[in-house]
């Protein structure tokens, strides 16, 4: 078995490279996949490019101390990440039931990493190596860097820096901060004195040298008063920009502070290109082959990342806290070079699966001033209306897609990342929209209106429903003009803060009128460091301090979810209960506007009876006492 080119994951591979003591050991909750869609691949390759040796411990047995010491003690420190996902999201559905598989583990096997993996791995390291520097990063550490609400334990937790016993957090994407950390350690600076690097969080009892910082409410005060946490969060939310963000200080008992430095500056196009030009093997380590490989590779093997960052500002999304609101892009040349590598792959069939990022059609900062003055602290770029300074221009993205389509061996270039439809409509030039419909959709386009109630959309930070309706009609018009029979698949979310049964019924009625029943519905999932999660925990919208209705009861959540899929016979009882509870029994009946029919009843003679005296048999799809009309059957059972 050859592993030439991969970083070492065994002592034998380390020795084959001539390494006697690695500079860093990277511990990850994912399988080792050397592809730039995986955070551990980017960070380790960047360190290697700067002259540091790195070995990888993938999915160690957290019950065995020997699993963390296979390479011995690293010269400079341990780097720890839970993986590409927060370990709790990776493990659990929103219902808190265990997921049966893990796409980031060989063979899709579940249970190969612990809950709260970053904390568990770090505590394991501390039991073996008490003084070695430990730096944590990745999505789990980044979004838990300050005190936060943890949905799975329904508790308010301290900064992960304290619970993990780590020395530093490298938050955000980490390419710049990790090199500065490595250089500081290599120069002999003790880890406790590394307090000056943007994009890091550290702990200290001496805050006298911090200039122009903001002292947040203490952990104890926030734990006692949820309103203080909501206020603290909005200060954090307003300081996620490297150009105008300030240092944030959060106090803990014993005079200790957790200090967040302002974020690292966004990568320039040249820096982005350099990151993606590193010598990745572009697949999983060969040792996983016998288990069938790592399932997650199939989603990204033939996809291209063109950007990062998002100025969309959806309240249920944590991108603002992790990647920031400033869009960073790769050059066309960089993307085309990677496309050439994809084309040479023996498994490539001519289809590039995606060209995008968090939002596919963002290929530049939202306005000119962002790269010098930063993003606005007190307003969003697209919500509630597009900012007058917004530059809605798809020309660069359009030229990129045309270049990719023209490559020999490419049959089709799809866009499967999210398309921000309000930004698309803000562009007065329809050329991109037309070419999107004509060339880049595989039968259906997935978009995310999330809801149709403007009251709920306001809580989500999404555009009003009228904007989606304009998009939907224009999409249909373009399909008709181009002779295409392509569909829209709207992503919808149930029980988001602010959504009562009233709004859930409104959504069901909208779907009825549209003739569409979604196959999947996402119940709102409170993940760390989002505006919506703060609403869920505190019952307060942190943006305006007003109270918000929160659907917390599992049964109430199930009713809201069932209403979106009211045509599914399995949901009948929940839909009936929801309509009754909402005072909307007018939607139970035989009229075409009704969502469900009355339950079949039996009179004292044992004869089926319902509503008009004729019992409706849902299982057989007919009305007893007379032949069923085909139209009736189709209306009830056909998925439109």
TrEMBL record:
Residues 615-627 have a biased composition (Basic and acidic residues). Residues 601-640 are annotated as: Disordered. Binds 1 [4Fe-4S] cluster. The cluster is coordinated with 3 cysteines and an exchangeable S-adenosyl-L-methionine. [4Fe-4S] cluster binds at residues 310, 314, 317. The keyword Electron transport does not apply. The keyword Transport does not apply. GO terms for molecular function: 4 iron, 4 sulfur cluster binding; catalytic activity; iron ion binding. InterPro entries: Elp3/MiaA/NifB-like_rSAM, rSAM, rSAM_horseshoe, rSAM_sf, UPF0313, UPF0313_C, UPF0313_N. Residues 628-640 have a biased composition (Basic residues). Its cofactor is [4Fe-4S] cluster. Residues 295-567 form the Radical SAM core domain. Gene3D superfamilies: tm_1862 like domain. Keywords: 4Fe-4S, Iron, Iron-sulfur, Metal-binding, S-adenosyl-L-methionine. Belongs to the UPF0313 family. NCBIfam families: SAM_YgiQ. This is YgiQ family radical SAM protein.
